[in-house]
Design goal:
By secondary structure, this protein is α/β, with parallel strands linked by helices. It folds into 3 domains: 222 residues, 3-Layer(bba) Sandwich (FAD/NAD(P)-binding domain); 111 residues, FAD/NAD(P)-binding domain (3-Layer(bba) Sandwich), CATH 3.50.50; 105 residues, FAD/NAD-linked reductase, C-terminal dimerisation domain (Enolase-like, domain 1, 2-Layer Sandwich), CATH 3.30.390. The chain has 12 helices and 22 strands. Strand 21 and strand 22 form a beta hairpin. Helix 1 runs parallel beside helix 7. The radius of gyration is 24 Å and the shape is globular. It holds the Pfam family Pyr_redox_dim.
């Protein structure tokens, strides 16, 4: 029958569309359900990441960084120019074009791999049946041997600052400002808040970031976090820690925000725009029928085991809707793993080596354990660091801010963590991911030849510094 499949994936974001493509590659008759559509009713593939997340934000981050370079840094290179201005509508149009290219590309990949796209909303029923509700309201029952839930996540709303999609926006609305706001507030100093605050700050906004926690980037290595905070402050971002927002009021074209500061004092501040970026929650609304047998954990995520299997045999869940970091690459790899398991292969993924990246400029990236985590475990360890200020390639590129940090086991010398704030941090950390996936020691990387002059040499010098052998900085005296 036309509506019978080996695999039905609900959601066409990075976790879902990758899972569907891999399942089809493995010879499984596969369908992918997606309900997201544009204002003309055309189905949008790619999920949050491609449409209103990773990709459009990176497009704006790159555009805004080039603006700052032209405005402030070209003169250092002897490049003369006058009157650099930003054309916000054109910048947004470029972003939209990139998004359209990639989302259209997903549709092409579905066709090339034989994935059937089912347009509408999916609901998991009992006995691995899936209910498909189309845009016109009609309903079909899809029979399948396996279901993969990949419905993603949505921004968290907070009562003190309700989103009105005008003056108070979430991460999606922050990608669509038609002009640069003079005074911009951001609630949340996490990845999304820092990236979006950086975009508009570079373009001329006075940015104040209100973070409820007293610790900056709590998930990151704190030496890297402190170095990052210094860089952000130098760039003009006003990051206020221990600032708990208690209310907001729209008065005309202004947003008046009240918050309690780290000393317990109530403070008021006025913005032209306010971005709420306090995190995301799993999207499970109208997804599970009462008799589906699929359960949620105490935080509202779909409960799965280490192989993303739910409590119902043949029903899996991947990506933001399950435990673990809400990262596109994590979801994609879970999708591949599940597709291969369904096809009868032995598959697993290494959850200990999922890299994290903040795409500000400079970037912040890390993989493995932080120094705080290693210390808390009571393990003996050693650390090597190297500043980009001592890198010839970084100086030549006018990218001297930041550092590379490598943590290794003191007994086995195995690399436990790689942490970077600086130019191309994501790419340098990826080298660390590869090394750690092969259980490399710091000596293994130290004995590796790195080309000169490159930013990668900073990683090489950091692993040399682990044992006090760095060449291009003075080594710390060992006790």
């Amino acid at each position: 029958m036309a509506n019978q499949f080996d695999v039905v994936v609900i959601g066409a974001g990075p976790a879902g569309y990758v899972c569907a493509i891999r399942a089809a590659q493995l010879g499984l008759k596969t369908a992918c359900i997606e309900k997201w559509s544009d204002d003309k009713g055309k189905t949008l593939l790619g999920g949050t990441c491609l449409n209103v997340g990773c990709i459009p934000s990176k497009a704006l981050l790159d555009s805004s960084h080039k603006f700052v370079e032209a405005q402030k840094d070209f003169a250092l290179h002897g490049i003369k120019h006058e009157g650099v201005e930003i054309d916000v509508p054109k910048m947004l149009a470029r972003k939209d074009k990139i998004v359209k290219t990639l989302t259209t590309g997903v549709g092409g990949l579905f066709k090339a791999n034989g994935v059937t796209l089912l347009e509408g909303a999916g609901k998991v029923l009992a006995a691995k049946q899936v209910e498909l509700t189309k845009g016109d309201g009609s309903v079909e029952i899809i029979e399948t041997a396996n279901v993969v839930i990949a419905t993603g996540s949505r921004p968290i709303d907070i009562p003190p600052a309700p989103v009105d999609n005008d003056l108070i926006v979430d991460s999606t609305g922050a990608l669509e400002f038609s002009e640069v706001p003079k005074r911009l507030g951001v609630i949340g100093a996490g990845v999304i808040g820092l990236e979006l605050g950086s975009v508009w700050g570079r373009l001329g906004s006075e940015v104040v970031v209100l973070e409820a926690l007293d610790q900056f980037l709590a998930a990151a290595d704190q030496q890297i976090a402190k170095e990052s905070m210094k860089i952000y402050k130098k760039q003009g971002l006003d990051i206020r820690l221990g600032a708990r927002v208690t209310g907001s009021e729209i008065r005309g074209k202004e947003v008046h925000v009240t918050y309690v500061d780290s000393e317990g004092n109530e403070t008021s501040i006025v913005f032209d725009k306010l971005i709420v970026a306090v995190g995301r929650r799993p999207y499970t609304e109208a997804l599970l029928a009462p008799g589906s047998g699929v359960n949620l954990d105490e935080r509202g995520f779909i409960f799965v085991d280490d192989h993303c299997a739910t409590d119902v045999p043949g029903v899996y869940a991947v990506g933001d809707v399950v435990r673990g970091p809400m990262l596109a690459h994590k979801g994609s790899e879970e999708g591949v793993m599940v597709a291969e398991i369904i096809a009868g292969q032995k598959a697993q993924m290494n959850y200990d080596l999922i890299p994290s990246v903040i795409y500000t400029h400079p970037e912040i990236a890390w993989v493995g354990k932080t120094e705080e985590e290693v210390k808390a475990e009571g393990s003996e360890y050693k650390v090597g660091t190297f500043p980009f200020a001592a890198s010839g390639r970084a100086l030549a590129a006018n990218e001297k801010d930041g550092m590379v940090k490598v943590i290794a086991d003191k007994v086995t010398d195995r690399i436990l963590g790689v942490h970077v704030v600086g130019p191309s941090a994501a790419e340098l950390v990826q080298q660390g991911v590869i090394a750690m996936e092969f259980a490399a020691s710091s000596e293994d990387l130290a004995l590796t030849i790195f080309s000169h002059p490159t930013l990668s040499e900073a990683l090489h010098e950091a692993v040399l510094a682990v044992d006090g052998h760095a060449i291009h900085i003075a080594n710390r005296k060992r006790r």
